Amino acid sequence: MKKFKILAVFALALGLTGCFTHTIKVGSGGDTSGAAASETTNSFFVAGLFGEANVDVSSACPDGNATVVVTHTIINRILQGVTMNLWAPATTTIYCGGGSAEVELSAEDMQKVAEAPSMQPIIEEAQSEQAAE
To answer: How many other β-carbons are positioned within 10 Å of the β-carbon of residue 106?
Structure first.
């Protein structure tokens, strides 16, 4: 009977912890319905209080658009329960965006940009740098 009570308390504690997800958008975000560009498991300790996970989004998604999803799955929670909260793993998945940072402008659009009053200081600075060379 004592083992049953311990197992019931453990199951209740595990059930109360639940699964949760953090979603972070970088740039315009990534396509989470497609294939992941990267998936790693990060280790945290003492119920997740200690540890650090650095994610290099620029190497996984060169265009700079990504969605980073940090998930604490039921498997992560079971492993955390088995280690009695000493180890708290989390799964980090990176999804890249399909777009690019490039912009195509027509000759007319480039002329409009060059003639804009806000561009004049930039153009003058570039001209003075070119003249100094």
So the answer is: 8
30 within 8 A of 96, measured Cβ to Cβ: yes
Distance of CA 123 to the CA centre of its chain: 36
Sign of the torsion formed by the C-alpha atoms of 106, 110, 113 and 115:
negative
**Domain layout of the chain by residue ranges:** 19-96, 106-133
Query: DSSP alpha helices (H): ranges in 40-106?
Result: 57-60, 74-82
Read off the pTM: 0.59
- CB-based contacts of 70: which residues, under 8 Å, 6+ apart? 21, 22, 23, 24, 42, 53, 90, 91, 92
Interval 71-118: pLDDT, tens: 888 888 888 888 888 998 999 999 998 655 556 778 888 888 788 888
Strand partners, 71: 21, 91
Helix%, strand%, coil% for the chain, nearest 5: 40, 20, 40
Q: In this structure, are residues 92 and 70 in contact, taking their beta carbons and an 8 Å threshold?
A: yes
> What phi and psi, each to the nearest 5 degrees, are found at residue 90?
-140, 145
123 vs 12: CA distance, rounded Å = 67
